[in-house]
Write a structure and sequence with these properties.
This protein is an alpha+beta fold and 85 residues long. It has 2 helices and 2 strands.
Length: 85
């Protein structure tokens, strides 16, 4: 397995359903929840770190969903404008 690759193995509670020679790859998606999404820390650290992971190929756009939660009432477009740059 090359560096930076992920390998997931699906495991069953009842081993009688599984052959010892058979590995089943697990597929799915990742949800990331950013608490305080409208704040300074999210703007300066969290979102740039997530973008860096995306740029390096660790976060695939079709497999990752990022949700932001904030006490400030802002729209999606306003949040995007705040973190863009």
């Amino acid at each position: 397995m090359a560096s930076g690759e992920w390998h997931c193995e699906k495991r069953f509670k009842n081993e009688s359903f599984r052959n010892e020679d058979e590995n089943v790859l697990e597929t799915g998606c990742l949800s990331i929840i950013v608490l305080g999404a409208s704040g300074d820390l999210a703007k300066k650290k969290t979102f740039p770190a997530l973008f860096n992971l995306y740029g390096k190929g660790f976060l695939q756009s079709d497999e990752v969903h990022i949700f932001g939660y904030a006490r400030t009432k802002i729209s999606d477009d306003e949040l995007r404008d705040r973190i863009r740059g």
